[in-house]
Records
---
Amino acid sequence: MKREEIIEKLRGILASAGDGTAPVSVTEESNLMTDVGLSSVSMLYMVIAIEEEFGIRFDDVGVGDFATLGDVVTYIGNKLG
Amino acid sequence: MPKYYDFETRDLFRKYTDAEQFEKIREYGTVTEMWQNCIFGYADRVAVIDGDETVTFARLEEDAARMRALFSDIPKDKKIGILAPNSYGFVKAFIAAVTSGHAAVALPPHLDAPTVFGCSMITETGAIVYDGSLADRLAVVRERRPDVALIKTDDAADEAADAVSASPDDPCAVVFTGGTTGKSKGAVLSNDAVMQGTVNGCYGYPDVFGQRYLLILPLTHVFGLIRNLMTSLYTGSTLFICRNNKDMFRDVAVFRPTIMVMVPALAEMALNLSRKFGKNMLGDDLKTIICGAAPVSPFLIGEYDKIGVKLLAGYGLTESANLVSGNPESVSKPESVGIPFPHQSIRVNDDGELLLKGRNMMLGYVGGAGEDAYEDGWFRTGDLCRIDEDGYLYITGRTKEIIVLPSGENVSPAEVEARFNAAPFIQDSQVFEDENELGGRILALEVVPRLSELSGVAPEERGAFIVAELEKINETLPPFSRVSRITVRETDFERTPAMKIVRYKKFS
């Protein structure tokens, strides 16, 4: 899966988190905490939704393990092989 | 003059529960007494599932009995600390400690070594049962208190020791408060209090006994320890321990829970995930969600009602051994936290503050801290409330969060927020005091929209739409409590570990 396809799916996930997260403008450089504004709940939402959407399993991860959305894209890309 | 409410409410709950099951809701004075009835009544039923371990009530008693033997040299006035994540080891250690006549101290697993040492000093622990993964947190205790016995959760004596009954007034558990408004304090709960809290969890919904509970809340929190673990054991139910919240929905698919105890933020998250993936992520067997620890929005109650799940809000504190009230009429009175449970006496001061007395109330704080916690022998909750004509309780704010306007008028932010939160497209809001351009003090409102309820409005028009709708609500408020500025946030509020909103404080 191409990076752009992954990020498009991530935008869909962020949009469905329902906590006001603004997904349209997010890019690979967006910082998850300061730009996207993920709280502990929306981070949990994102992890669960990614696992469901991409059919992958996260290893034990915490909010601090990813700085930008690009880091998440890379992680998903590696998991998908 | 304060108002007093002291009536027997058991019969008010009768009609909400299956008649035969309701008669089985009995009171016990001690956990040991309850536990002996569990072993007798439910021996072969599964009590706990944790990973690969499936443990019956009989086996839990056998394991607890061999751990009790390890406590035999520890004087009864010394407590047993438990330092473990949510696990079968925690459950076993808790049952072993309290049925050996000791009080258990629930030590939150995120504490560092000096804090574990401090907590064990002030609570006078004679032993700490710990999970191997947390051994490093005992470094300071090991060095400075060689007299404290350190026992691993999987340690066991060769011999079993019989259960010992404490007296109802004896301490049973020490649970630390969340500490969102100050330093965390250890509330000492008697056997009577823990049992009252446990039984309170049985009122207000149809099927109570033989349920399947999925545990996602920490066992070191009263909501997890008493409402989830203790009520599950009491009712002969099975407790499935979710080891990692991110695996919650995989666990749901395997275990198919019938009841869950959770905070509103998680209930809302489950709803959003269900929408996104077009399936009920909480499973089709779920009938009841017990929701508390933060205000529950009427929207959430309504949405779950549509899919046949009763979401019941309650009100409780660490100091009250969990639940004080529960709302069996959550759909018709969604803003209420319900009616007080049996043996709960209530006093409402002139300023609206809620004060409590009853079997479920703590003996006091560890080390006697917090003398201002009481007034005439009544525990001061710090919460503001009102009670309607049917005896239903509403929490309207915190005494400490009251904003005193320059005009001298008092505004309860929570009360104003509740009015804005009633709009379906508002997920959360915060009312606070701020400055305008001229330096004058104003009331400001920030909201987090619920985008799923705004799909009919074009994205670029949402901000204006929300502000216009909120302005209409604002007009219905008493003039002094109207907000002068409305901001629509693009991100969630900053939250505490318990997922509560961190409140702005510009003026103190």
---
Amino acid sequence: MRTADRLVRRAVRHGGPWLGVLTLTSLLGALMELALPFALGRAVDALVAGGPVNGPWPVTCAVVVIVGAACDVAGVRAAGESGARVTRRIRLRLLRYVLGTGPAMTRRFPEGELVTRMGVNAEEVGHAPESIVTGAALAVPTAGGLVALTLIDPWLTLTLLAALVLIALVLRAFLRATTTIAAGYQEAQGDIAARLVDALAGARTIAAAGTADRERDRVLTSLPRLRRHALDMWRANARAGVRAGAVIPLLEVAVLGVGGLRLASGDLTVGELYAAARYAALGAGLGSALGYVNRLARARAAAARVVGLLTERPVAYGELPLPAGPGTLELRGVTAGGLRGIDLLVPGGSSVAVVGRSGSGKSLLAALAGRLTDPDRGEVLLDGVPLRRLSAGALGRAVGYAFERPVLVGDTIADAVGLGRDTPDRGAVHAAARAACADAFVRRLPRGYDTPPQEAPMSGGERQRLGLARAFAHGERLLVLDDATSSLDTVTERQVGQALSGELGGRTRLIVAHRAATAAAADRVVWLDGGRVRAYGAHAALWRDPGYRAVFQATRRPAPPPGDVPPPPTPTSGDTPSADVTPPDVTPPHVPVPAVPARRSAP
Amino acid sequence: MSRRGRARRANRPIRRALCRDPRLLLRLGAWSLAETAPALVAGLAIARAIDEGFAAGRPGTGFAWLAVLGGAWLVAAAGARQVVLAVASIVEPFREELLRHVVESALRRSATTGRDPGAAAVARSNIQVELARDALASVITVVRSFAFTAVSVLVGLAGLVPQVLVLVLPPLAAGLGMFLLSLPALARRQRDFIVADERTAASLALMAGGLRDITATRSAGRVADRVGRRVGEQARAERSLARVSALRTASLTVGGGLPVLLILAGTPWLLRQGAGAGTILGALVYVTQSLAPSLGNLVQGLGMSGVRLRVSLERILGSGEPYRPEGRRVPPEAGIDLRDVRFAYGPHAEPVISGLELSVPAGDHLAVVGPSGIGKSTLAALVTGLLTPDAGRVLIGGVPADRVAPACRVLIPQESYVFRGSLLENLTYLAPAASPGAVDDAVAAVGLDALVARLGGYSAEIHSGLLSPGERQLVALARAYLTPARLVVLDEATCHLDPAAEARAEEAFARRGGTLVVIAHRLTSALRARRILVMDGTSVHLGGHGELLASCPAYADLAGHWNPLDAQELVP
């Protein structure tokens, strides 16, 4: 909590001149509020006694009203200005921090949590200075009101305090009641949402069957229940509001009664009686002043949540550019997560498939290869330079990543594909999209390449193709494909494979593969098992190992019928597990496809 | 749509909510009178209590007047409770109407775009509905409260000392006028702020979801700039809102503060007219305790909730009026005719289908093949009337496809729909009158019997999470088999089945009769069809398997590389 308080203190320091204005106007305004009943009372007394309209008390009243109003006006503006300023500052800092830390952040905090902390919580902290000032200023009229009332008559104060206790009890009872009602309400809401989510998944069925009206009714089955719970909440609300609302005025009436007796006995003037009644009301406002304490507690909790984001360490980049080279990737004694002591040399321009049962560390290896994550021990080098020492720009130009479920970040499709490039030019984006077989479907989107990704209806396969295009637009030297073609149909996958070995063939390719065909198409295969490299060689050679073949059966989803295991590939150019680099223009061997009809007839 | 048009549409549900039941409004009015009773009597009671009671040495009279005041507060308490309930019974039906609209338009939109907006979008629209309801309740409450309080106070003042109205009315009118004049600017700023806030949240969400991809493209700096711009815009919107809100506060001073000073200034004059000290006090009580707070609530409430209500309603209704199907017809037979059909997903998009001519006679069995994303599902949507062509005609038995009665055709998409309910309800969804025998036949025909046995009969309660994707597809197939529809379109409806199960299901549909269109997931589906339509992006070819192998290179290419094993792995 101490670091959270430091954040709040810093927020106060960064409030700027407007926070000063707010402090000044809040205090002054509070004093005016406190002074007004007294001044009004005096003025009435003076005027009734035949005093002049421009006498000291009426003039004081005018000053108090005008200064108070000016304070209100300036305070509203100052609160908004300083809150906006501090919130912006905190958000920008969080933004740089979270983006600098990268995926490590998402591993610790779910996405929704990140958004809440950077959004709502940052705003609460940003407005914490305002809460402190306003809360503190509110203490002036409430505490002052009680003091003034006590000066007029201590018995009135005691009556007031008794009533305040009453209000607190009422409010507590209200809170207890609403939590149970709210649970039923949220349940009904949840039921409607769940049914709607179900129905949306079947929207095409529903539209074709013309049953939208029936579905609407089915989704809204819980509507009567929702209304019942909602009305219960309104009733509870009404009850508590009424009790709390009636107590203060009744109290004021009591104060007026006691004060009236003293007026009759000549101990109190009419003006003082008025002041006493107003001070009773002001003093009773203690409840809302306590509300500010609550707000401050919330801001403190929010600050703790914001500070929680700042515990991860952002990725530090080096300064080095990348020297000329073929894109040789080397892992030296790399240990990270489940991987232990990995040594691997991927020759520049070659393609290497990474295979292994699920959980064997394939994706982790892919993440290490392009510095999506850093190893605990060991070093990853690209053309002889440790990745840690490369600048962000050099790394971004050299390495391109494609994922199974790419997230498209950008205002338009073109923007998302060219993301991170210094000069995103259309030609390069289109070429990358063509290589990924994405060009044709992008052109058919409502606004072509200018379609915002969120508005583009895309299947998993289409999304993957854009992810591939993005990788092609980036990775001038190394392409890392982490299960990036799993949703493509075989025809498209074959075309992408041709592009990878053809126009993109000069780049080093590291491909996490689940299909035997993909592994067969690579120059070499890294077989991961139990956190180590079990074998590194050509697919055709490895295929003789039943354990290697079992990898592809185990990772299949769903398990294939027994007859459907792909046959070993026919080696086309000898199966010596060589370290040489395949010339870029040689098409990798394909798994031969058996004649379709013969294989389909019976299981 | 124009701003004005949007505003008009947003007003409609509000008007309906208010006019739904005039008796509710009467009830609301009656209880509002009770609620504002103190505003009517407070000043008068205090003035009389002092002038005729305590100050005149008659404490009994003073207490009597205070008792009247206390009684008014108790009446007000009862009234306030009833007012809340009356407001609730206006806004709850309002919420239900909005919720109904959200559900309807979400279903319709995702049906036409073929895109599931997902649980998050559903949650977002639910929040908008709640916000709209709360905002409407708040607007009704403050506007009504101000109107009744102002009238009560003015009547009370008139009863106390009518001359004082001269001192109170003009500044009140001026303050109210100032506020109403500033309202449009305030509403604009408030709206900008809400929009900026939503945009910031959206860009933060996109960023949080894409952290891995942002790091992979080393575009953190660029994204930080972009999201930072949103953050800056929001801060600017908040500051500009604060400036206008400050002006709004000034109107409060004129309307609520100035009358106090004017009453003081007019005190000698009022005293000359015969008012007592208590009367002056009473007038001050009216203004400071009733009029000023209710004006403050109005200014605060209308400025904030009114705009919130408008924005939420525009978000909810933005998707347009729910579409109402009209003039559905039953075609005499189920042959398909496409004449020079063109379809694109937007005016700036390249067409997915262009100049397509296709004639499928009733009872034919057609398979459609081609790489993914080539427009096969679009064709299925055109044939079943989910989409209408930009040019050309799509006819089913001579009737435009979008006018065909839904019962005459059935589409089974890749993502099969299973809802919470019994297995029987799910099976008879499109044929509620199906006999038990017919259900048994359908179950046996598509090969669902194993699942029925596993679940323990038709009465088992199911939901989509309970079944595997393949089982869900079998349920959808049996459901379609049961319908009397003469046109069946299977849009990769068997992709999660193994090849043998797929063959069994497709053969069942071929035997069932009627026109059958199969968007093929595996080439084997094409081999079972009588004719095959090949779509390869630039042209289409129609023919039998052997014929196409010889004449259509695109088909030969597909046949050569359509790896059935891998195709099965396609995840939707």
